[in-house]
Amino acid sequence: MPATTAVLCGLGASLPQQAVSNSRLIADNRLDSDDQWILQRTGIASRHMADARTSTGDLATAAGRAALDSAAELAGTRIHPDIVLLATTTPDHRCPATAPEVAHRLGHTGTPALDLSAACAGFVYALTVARALITAGHCTHPLVIGAETYTTTLIDPHDRDTAILFGDGAGAALLRPGTPTEPGALQAADLGSDGARAAYAQVPAGGSRTPLGAPGTHPGDHHLRMNGRAVYTQAVRRMTSSALTALEKTGWTTHDVEAFISHQANQRIIDAVADRLHIPAARRHGNLRELGNTAAASIPLALADAATRRAAHPGQRTLLTGFGAGLAWGSHTLLFPEARPRTLPPHPHDDKATP
What we know:
- The chain has helices at 22-29, 35-42, 56-75, 99-105, 122-135, 150-153, 160-163, 228-250, 267-276, 288-291, 298-308; strands at residues 5-14, 19-21, 46-48, 83-87, 113-116, 142-148, 169-178, 186-193, 201-202, 225-226, 259-262, 317-324, 328-335, 342-343.
- It has 355 residues and is α/β, with parallel strands linked by helices.
- Helix 3 (56-75) packs across helix 4 and helix 8 (228-250) packs parallel to helix 9.
- The radius of gyration is 19 Å and the shape is globular.
- The model has no long low-confidence stretch (mean pLDDT 95).
């Protein structure tokens, strides 16, 4: 039977070793806050933070390898990806892209690889691209990775508005051709953007419009600046609308959703979206409390976590939705995958491909 969609057949995760509690973050960064204030305002109790030796590429490579290991366990044979899609806003270098180096380190030099930047919605965008490539016959086993190191690249550690929110990590999924009735099968997607509101979440300097050190720039302009109230309003509105559109395309109602996995931005945002979709608390899955906001990595990390804890089961009707800077948002429906996730620690870059 010909493939009509893409199926998630492997899941992987990678986190920096260092877990930082709210209390430690406050003490280390001399923030005017306290543990309970952060927990009540955001739902975050701790986050994993990369050290100076750990890059986005390190995390992405480990998560990608873990997803390939997961797929091999399920299939009984090693599967080689024929394209690597890396969703990230924090690449190892401004140029070149990080994905080719990740592919090389995974032992797949020569495999096409590219970075995709849609901020916190990046993984949903990348899934949609991977599904389109499979159904068009351009590839059979895309490896989709979301990886970020916001805490070492974009976040001002002394800015309470952002420092309390973000953590680092990577999640990955290997896909294969399949049919819409299989566990892991992607169903329908909805994507959107609104560049008129780009300033709501933006790094003011460092790009070609405003290079670092250009006249008029200020110290700290290379850090992420957010209008929290505006981001909250837009995130709730856009994710809710996008989710409803994806459900309509699939032929599902909100009552059909058995597993809801949102971008792990802020517990108030997650709950507001889920409440508007009438999704019961028991069907909402995430790990924001332990990991914080890991941007493009948050959805695959939450997906892997739900599978590891068996909080969701293969074949359950699942809704993913994300929102990020750009503004960019997206949703995808799928049947919850059968894959058993693997988790690997990041390893420093050693310039050697490994099988």
